Amino acid sequence: MTPKPRQPAVGKTAPGPLRYRDVTAEWLTLALREKWPDVTVTAVRRGPIFGFKQNKFRVYVEYDPTSRNLGLADTYIVKGNFPGENDPSTGSAWAMANELHSIRDLVPLIAAPAMPDWHYIAVDADASAIVMEDLTPKGVSFFDAFTTLDLGQAMAFMDAFARMHASTWNSGAFKEGGAMAPGSLASENRRLVNEVYFPSFFEPDNWRSYVELPRGRALPRQFQSLARAEAAWYKMWGALKQSGFVVIHGDEHLGNLYVTADGTPGVIDWVARPEHWPIGISYFLLCALDIVDRRRWERALLSHYVTRLSVHGASDAPALEDAWFMYRCATFYPVVTWLNNSAVWQPEAINTANAVRASAAALDHDAFGLLGV
């Protein structure tokens, strides 16, 4: 029988690996011992890097005889920013740290959708890493940017997000003294995204460089104007102050979604932070649905979300018409975020597909008009 593991520690025994080659049997032994103190890994074989960012791979492991009796997995996924590779495509240190803080420190505070188990996390100034469950043997199905959701899948994800959002809906945890109050890790995650990352979008050189890429040229001209976009962006945030405050996943595009063998919605790659709910829902719907399907289904899906918020315990869930207005205002959010998404993080085809889907919605809903720009 597999012994019940203790909770993973915080990565003080096994430091974050600097290079791929640092993920050795000795390193993995130290990492896994933070959850299973008696384990010894005798051999590790690294599989190929997968995904667009060069930051994760499958490891095939062998154990000593005692460890084999623990009934542990034969494979794990190791993900990190691996700064010693000197490769920008491994991702930034702050983004990796944000993701791991989200998984380790914020997800336990919410009713999260399905996600891989994790066994070790190290969050260091330079090199951060996670060892987590390999979902492939469980028969999960991952999505990609070019395989959009059907209606049943979209409804299941809306229910999962409603459950998650309801668990912190206008929660006292966001107030002084609460677990996610100003000054907390959750608040710091939001500050880094909203006050450091987002303002960089509107630096003229940055904006111009993205508008000149295929994604920018694919957008209607009105979305290429820096002055108009910046004005709409800040008016949008002002309008959203009237909407419920929750913890969102923070990066709800198709590449971060999966379903289990029984159809249960799951998520990976968190950028969790306290936020107004329309940010998470608009980003999800505009990225996850084909443009024609989104036009046909979005109001019904939003109605489903609002209904399920109440079912899951949000006592002051918005009326559908109020939610519809806020959602329409927030359609501008994914236009700007995908226009400005780093080519290190996603290939141009994905950035373009999502920017175009979002701009179609913002046009359909007259987001500029709603925001008075």
Outline:
The protein is of the alpha+beta class and 373 residues long.
Describe it for me?
- The chain has 373 residues and is an alpha+beta fold.
- 42% of the residues lie in helices and 13% in strands.
- It contains 14 helices and ten strands.
- The protein has helices spanning 25-33, 65-68, 93-106, 151-166, 185-197, 204-211, 214-217, 226-240, 277-288, 291-311, 320-330, 332-339, 348-364, 367-370; strands at residues 41-49, 56-63, 75-80, 118-122, 129-133, 141-142, 245-248, 257-259, 265-267, 273-276.
- Strands 1-2-3-5-4 form a five-stranded antiparallel β-sheet, sandwiched between helices.
- A hairpin with a 5-residue loop joins strand 8 and strand 9.
- It is globular, with a radius of gyration of 21 Å.
